[in-house]
Amino acid sequence: MFREGSFYKELLKRFANDEVSGFSAQLSYFFLLSLFPFLIFLITLIGYLPISQVDVLGVIKQFAPDETIQMIDRILDQIIDKKNGGLLSFGIIATLWSASNGMNAIVKALNRAYGVDESRPFLVARGMAILLTIAMVFVIVVALLLPVFGREIGLFIFANFGFSEQFLSVWNTFRWLVSGIILLLVFTAIYFFAPNKHLHLKDVLPGSIAATAGWIVVSSAFSYYVGNFANYSAHYGSIGGVIVLMIWLYLSGMIIILGGELNGLLYKRKDVY
Predict the structure, then answer these.
(1) 213: alpha, beta or left, given left = phi > 0 and alpha = psi -120 to 50?
(2) Average pLDDT for the chain
(3) Which three-class secondary structure state does DSSP give residue 215?
């Protein structure tokens, strides 16, 4: 068995050698490029679905700082026409292109975590990135729908079976846990399919669980910090919300890559021991 101290030292060494900070910055850039086309796509799509702009922002608000939510809300109010089919098409194309670029960056970072080169043909690698992006978009849409349908299901059970109001409270907590489960599935799919390495499900679960927990904790802590201690708008004016958003996306990218580094280190240790 390996010593815990040496494990963390090696993980820290990987952080520097594998340029985790640089890849995180690259990811935050692509995340920013894809965020608003994706939100445009979602807000346009909800004209055909039983969810609202408030529902979409409500899911993001669970993790994102308030300044970021306010900025996103203002921008969406300015540019969204829910009945514009051309805007929906633009959102789909722009989201797939920019988000698949971000997925390519994740592929490179995960390949480095496992110490392998990308040997797959360009079209295969790019196609996989686009398919993973489509899967992520689909999962996120489902994640948005589940709380809405979950609320209606809870109200139906409450009204027809005579449960107490405490049931509704427990039910609401349970249905929001679905967001964490879906996030875990997304990370698991990325860590399983993205690297140019044949892996088993058990090889990627530690990083998926760590990334899910880490992302929720870091996002919540950063949101609390921004809301209670830091006033970026006072220091940076109107771009304060953009700066907060970029820092949040940077931290999110770092969590994703660190989850892959954890899997890569555990995989290496497994072969050694």
Answers:
(1) alpha
(2) 75
(3) helix
